[in-house]
Design brief:
The complex is a heterodimer of chains A (209) and B (150).
Chain A lengths: L10 H64 L1 H9 L6 E9 L2 E9 L15 H83 L1
Antiparallel strand pairs in A: 1-2
Helix pairs in contact in A: 1-2, 1-3
Chain B lengths: L5 H17 L8 E2 H6 L4 E3 L5 E3 L2 H10 L2 H6 L1 E2 L1 E5 L5 E5 L3 H11 L5 E2 L2 E5 H8 L6 E5 L11
Parallel strand pairs in B: 5-9
Antiparallel strand pairs in B: 1-4, 2-3, 5-6, 6-8, 7-8
Classes of the chains: A mainly alpha (209), B alpha+beta (150).
C-alpha cells in the first residue's frame, strides 16, 4: 500500500500533485533510459576487459619466452649492457570521458613503438627484437586494461546509484503521488455528494414551510 | 512544499541533481576532425567546465575512412540522441560524413531522416566500440514520438 502524502484537500494541491506526477513520470523514463545505456556500456566494457586480460596474459607469456631465449643466446650480462642504452621514458596522455553522466578515465600511451630501439642490431639476436616488440604490446595492453578496469568499477557504482533512483521512483514516489491524487479525487466527490444531499434536505425543508 | 516529509524532500533533490548531470557533459562547441587532428592534445570543453579528451587512434581511424573535405565537415564528438521511452536512438547527422562512417562501421546502408540516423541499441554498442571518445550521449527531454528540432 503506497503511503499518502500529507496535503490539504484543495484543488490547488491537486494541480500541484498532478504536475509533480507528470514530472516524476518523465524523469523516470529518462533515468530508465540512462540506466539501460549504462548497462549497455558496462557489458561492453566487461567483455572488452575480459578480452584485454586474456590478450595481455598471452602477450606476457610470449614476451617472457622470447626474452629467455634471447638471454640464452647472448648471456645475461651482455644483454643487459645492450639494453641499458635502450631505456626511454614513456608518455601517457590522461583525460576523462563521460558515459551517460558517469565520468570515466581515458589513457593513451604515446610512442610505445619506435623504429629504433637504442640497441645494436648487429650485436643482438632477432629474439631480442621479438622480445621488445612483445613488451611494447604488453605496455599498450596494460594501459588499456587499466582504463577498462577503472571504467568498469566506476560504471558499476553509477549503475547501482541509478538503480536506487529508478526503484525509488517506481515503487515509492510515483505510487504515493498516484494514491494521493486518487484520495483527493475521492475526497472531492465525497464533498460533492455531501453538498447535493444538503441542498436536497434544504429544499425539502423549504417545501414543508 | 512545507508539508513534505524529509525523505520526500531528499528524493526530490536527488532527482533534480540527476537531471542536472544528465546533459552536463555535452561539449560547448563541436570541433572539426581536421582541426582535432592538428591539435597536440585533441579535446573539447564541456558545459560543466571539464575537458573531453579524444583518443588520437580514434581520430586517425575516422580520418582513414574520410577524404579531406569530409574531415573538415565532420564535427566531433558525434551526438547519439536518446529519447525517453523509445527502443531506438538517433545519431545526429549534419552531413554525409556521419552517414558514411556509420555505414562503414555497421557494414550496412543507413538512411538519414530529419537530420538523424535511427539505430537500435545493439547497433549503438557496435558504434561505441571503436568510437568511445568521438561519440557522446545526449538525453533528450522531449516525450516519446517527437524529435527535438536541431
Amino acid at each position: 500500500m503506497p503511503q499518502l502524502i500529507k496535503v490539504r484537500p484543495t484543488k490547488i494541491e491537486l494541480i500541484k500533485l498532478r504536475r509533480r506526477l507528470s514530472l516524476s513520470t518523465r524523469i523516470q523514463k529518462i533515468v530508465k533510459d540512462r540506466l539501460s545505456i549504462l548497462m549497455l556500456e558496462f557489458l561492453q566494457i566487461a567483455r572488452e576487459t575480459a578480452q584485454a586480460r586474456r590478450r595481455l596474459l598471452k602477450e606476457f607469456s610470449e614476451a617472457y619466452k622470447a626474452s629467455s631465449i634471447a638471454v640464452g643466446y647472448q648471456g645475461y650480462i651482455a644483454l643487459e649492457k645492450e639494453l641499458i642504452a635502450s631505456e626511454r621514458d614513456l608518455e601517457i596522455t590522461t583525460g576523462s570521458r563521460n558515459v551517460a553522466g558517469a565520468r570515466v578515465p581515458s589513457f593513451e600511451l604515446k610512442g610505445a613503438e619506435k623504429a629504433t630501439r637504442g640497441y645494436s642490431l648487429v650485436d643482438t639476436s632477432s629474439w631480442l627484437d621479438q622480445t621488445a616488440q612483445r613488451a611494447e604490446k604488453c605496455l599498450e595492453d596494460i594501459v588499456m586494461l587499466a582504463e577498462l578496469q577503472s571504467s568498469l568499477e566506476l560504471l558499476g557504482r553509477e549503475i547501482n546509484r541509478t538503480k536506487r533512483i529508478v526503484n525509488a521512483l517506481e515503487y515509492l514516489i510515483v505510487p504515493s503521488l498516484q494514491a494521493t491524487i486518487k484520495y483527493l479525487y475521492m475526497k472531492f466527490e465525497e464533498r460533492d455528494r455531501e453538498e447535493k444531499s444538503r441542498l436536497k434536505r434544504v429544499k425539502v425543508l423549504l417545501e414543508q414551510r | 512544499m512545507p508539508n513534505e516529509s524529509p525523505y520526500q524532500r531528499m528524493l526530490q533533490q536527488c532527482l533534480r541533481g540527476e537531471l542536472r548531470v544528465l546533459n552536463a557533459h555535452l561539449p560547448c562547441e563541436q570541433k572539426a576532425l581536421s582541426a582535432l587532428l592538428a591539435d597536440e592534445y585533441p579535446n573539447v570543453v564541456c558545459h560543466d567546465g571539464s575537458t573531453h579528451l579524444f583518443k588520437r587512434k580514434e581520430l586517425e581511424y575516422l580520418a582513414s575512412m574520410l577524404d579531406t573535405d569530409e574531415q573538415a565537415a565532420l564535427l566531433l564528438p558525434m551526438l547519439i540522441e536518446v529519447n525517453p521511452g523509445q527502443d531506438d536512438v538517433a545519431i545526429i547527422c549534419r552531413g554525409k560524413a556521419e552517414e558514411k562512417i556509420i555505414t562503414k562501421i555497421l557494414d550496412m546502408p543507413v538512411t538519414t531522416r530529419q537530420k538523424r540516423i535511427m539505430l537500435y541499441k545493439p547497433q549503438v554498442a557496435l558504434i561505441r566500440k571503436p568510437l568511445k571518445t568521438t561519440t557522446q550521449y545526449l538525453f533528450s527531454p522531449k516525450s516519446s514520438g517527437t524529435l527535438a528540432p536541431l
